[in-house]
Amino acid sequence: MRVHSKALVSTAAIALSASMLMPTVALAQDGPDEADEENRIVVTGTLIRGVEETGSKSIDVGAEEIVALGSSTTNELLGEIPQATNLFNARFDGDPRSADRQQVSRPNLRGLPGINAATGSTTLVLVDGHRVVPMGVDQASFDPDFIPPGAIEKVEVVLDGGSSLYGADAVGGVVNFITRREVDGIEANATLELGDDYEAYNLGLSAGTAWNNGSAYVTYNYYDRGILLRGDRDFAAQGSWNADGTVLTPSGTQCLEPVGEIVTWANFGAGWTSNPAAAALGVRRTAVGTPCDIDAEGTFLPALERHTVLFGLSQELSDTLTLDVRANFGDSHVTFAAYPLGDTVSEQDPNTLMIPGNFGDTYDVASVGFSYGANSAYVDRDQTQDLRVYGIAPELTISLGNDWQIKNLLYWGRSENSRLLPSSNRTVLLDYVASGDFDPTDVAAASPGVINDILNFEVAGESRQELALFRSIADGPIFDLPAGPVRAAFGVELNLEEASLRSESVTIGGLSAIPFRSEARNVKSVFSELSIPVFSMLDLSLSARYDDYSDFGDTFNPSVGFNFEPTEWLRVFGHWGESFNAPTALDAVRTANARFIANAAAGVPDPNMERTDPNRDDVLLVEGSGGGLRPQTAETWSIGTEFEPVSDLVFSANYYNIDFSNVLGAVNPQLASVVLLNPDKFIFNPTQAEFDAFLAASSNGEQFADINADDVGVIIDRRVANISSAQLEGLDFSVDFRTELGAGDLNLGLAGNKQLDFVVTDNGITVDQLEFDLPDLALTAYAGYSLGGFRSRLSLNHTSGFDTNTAVAQTEVDSFTVFNLFLGYEFQEEDGLLEGLAFRFNVDNLFDTDPPVFRQQRNLNYSGFTLGRVFKIGVSKRF
């Protein structure tokens, strides 16, 4: 849909919010000629030049604001927007716990459900108004962090569905990164970030030249940060809470010093049981050894090294022809740390062995967890992710006269993505245990050959994704009305998409012998838009788009919007439209994969008390593709107002409503409400037949064929499917005030989002997501002062507390508020050789505030995210 309910956070609010971050270039830069720029770029919420977006209000961050902002990463910039619920006061990077399944960071405007399960995204990311090649081994979405910060001229965020103009994925909204037109000279910058056990470096260089009818430039950015472990932050501890919630103790069992358990089974006449309710018969559990803090050595923030480059060329070929070319390259390497790799082995129980017994007989079954790190032959291998992306986009603009023009765009892009998770071969392990060559209680005694044979194994994945598109858009005036010209845009687009994937559990390096599975498809589209000045106070827009997919069929998405301005100080606007998110080409080549997680069943909510046997404490998790995916669809509408009672004081508010259907995703195994909604996705106390069926559906199922189903407390089916629907309502709001104070300027503001309703329906059961475990308010507030070349700002980011029914001895989780400080100075023209030199000093999380405690058993025990107090020192210079 394209009438955008642009996020009612004012431009000034986001600009000042951004200014807390370290710069990548100087405070000011020469921009392109305004008239020429109007001819070159249209507003994200419309395809028609020279008109304002109708029915919507956007978050716009312009060139000067972005330069002043200088965020360390592009996703950190998006994390200043309260409506980007997965980034605001939360992780700007992917969650390390899902590093083997999630490789790219994706903004999720409006917090639509299913984002971490689907390969694609319900927020469309554009660069210069067009989609770019998707990235990821298990994902198909462009990561905004691969845009060099120094190349960004403007960011426009639209918070309404945009499928009537842009097609798939624009359900929650559209984020459009507009690159700079020119750089005339050299710009260099460097930033150092320091915190407890943390440091990062951000270096950038831009160089270019301009001539009478054109320009060319190249921008390079290098970002390098060290790793943070969970043990480096007190609040990041994981483990098991006591029932009263007072003590959190480590619960790892695959330790350098083996940790085991003896389960005493009892015979009740009709068979054997390990149910603790039969304690009178002698059933008991006896711990052997002391659990270790495996989680403390896990990754809190992975190490990252990234290079990004963007080349830009603009050339007027004649009075009627203009050529713009953008080419980009990005490469990143991410490294995760972990406790030395381990395993758990168990003896078979008497039922499996079919041991006869009499009433009251007992039988001991031992299990032991261990780490291979106890053996001198063990070599620690890192879990890694590698992403590479490159593309080129030439665009030819043809002026036809009578204010009509045609923009013809060609784009080709490719991403190469890989992930590697060191693992062990359980089949080989159990053979060595059976032969006596490996004693799990004395790992150090095993020969190097045995250790190397067991650990010659890894879970590896590689993907290649390509996108080629052609788009042609003509726009101009059709006829005149008394209030002005009726303008129109007409366009056609062809997308050619291809995805290739290979993913398997193999011997080290063995993935290269496995062929890629590939899928190609095409999408043919036509679209149009009308801008109608009905009368002097009322503008109307109409848009529609038809997309024909070669794999799943066609879709039609219309929208309508209006602007009503009865006075110069009041504007009322609204929109209605339909949008969709299509399955990706990658979905067609994905398969299901199983993961075995020892001793984790207690961390899965069990609201119906189905898991009656605590001995069954392992989890089998099945992820990947379930096949037969259909598009997600949405109907959205909003109405808002912008009110300026006096000069430089602006109030705005916007109500939105999203009816989201055929929601594509997978269940979240951390929420009790999800377990209640999806009983078929959580198989408690599975039978051997159920266990075998899930292994048979998984490409790596043979790896777990030795697992005894009687040890598995729950099977979680997280294969992607169209599993639900959702209804969301909310309110965006902002206040912005500017005034002179002394010789300088004072800026005050507040902006945020209040979720009014968020219900999810599965299998005919509707659950209010705001009732438990989800904050419903996010806001940012700031006070900034500037004088000459000096700028300062104090800001806060706040998310509300919430009720919980999943935590241990806890019914409420506190709110989370972080303060940030920015101070900067840029030398002015009168400073001679120092002109263009700028210094910045930032303190993120000024008061070193920890996220609030959220006592989730064996899961994250905090809500929100922070690195703690981080100092950022930056310098930049224009030559």
Question: What do you see in this structure?
Answer:
- The strands form six sheets. The chain has a 22-stranded antiparallel beta barrel.
- The model is unreliable at 1-41 (pLDDT under 50).
- α1 (11-18) runs parallel beside α3.
- The protein has ten helices and 42 strands.
- By secondary structure, it is mainly beta.
- The protein has one domain (11-258, 289-878): TonB-dependent receptor, beta-barrel domain (Maltoporin, Chain A, Beta Barrel).
- The longest helix is centred in the middle third of the chain and has 10 residues, at 426-435.
Q: How is this structure best summarized?
A:
This protein has 879 residues and is mainly beta. The protein is built from 10 helices and 42 strands.
Write the layout of secondary structure elements.
Blueprint: H1 11-18, H2 34-40, E1 59-61, H3 63-69, H4 74-78, E2 123-127, E3 130-131, E4 152-158, H5 163-166, E5 173-179, E6 185-195, E7 198-211, E8 214-225, E9 228-229, E10 240-241, E11 248-249, E12 259-267, E13 272-273, E14 284-288, E15 299-301, E16 303-316, E17 321-336, E18 342-346, H6 350-353, E19 362-371, E20 383-401, E21 404-422, H7 426-435, H8 448-454, E22 458-481, E23 484-506, E24 517-535, E25 538-549, E26 553-567, E27 570-581, E28 593-597, E29 618-625, E30 632-646, E31 649-665, H9 672-677, E32 682-684, H10 688-696, E33 712-741, E34 744-762, E35 765-768, E36 777-787, E37 790-799, E38 802-803, E39 812-813, E40 816-826, E41 837-844, E42 870-878
Parallel strand pairs: 2-5, 29-33
Antiparallel strand pairs: 1-4, 2-3, 4-5, 6-7, 6-42, 7-8, 8-16, 9-15, 10-11, 12-13, 12-14, 12-19, 16-17, 17-20, 18-19, 20-21, 21-22, 22-23, 23-24, 24-25, 25-26, 26-27, 27-30, 28-29, 30-31, 31-33, 32-33, 33-34, 34-35, 34-36, 36-37, 37-40, 38-39, 40-41, 41-42
Helix pairs in contact: 1-3
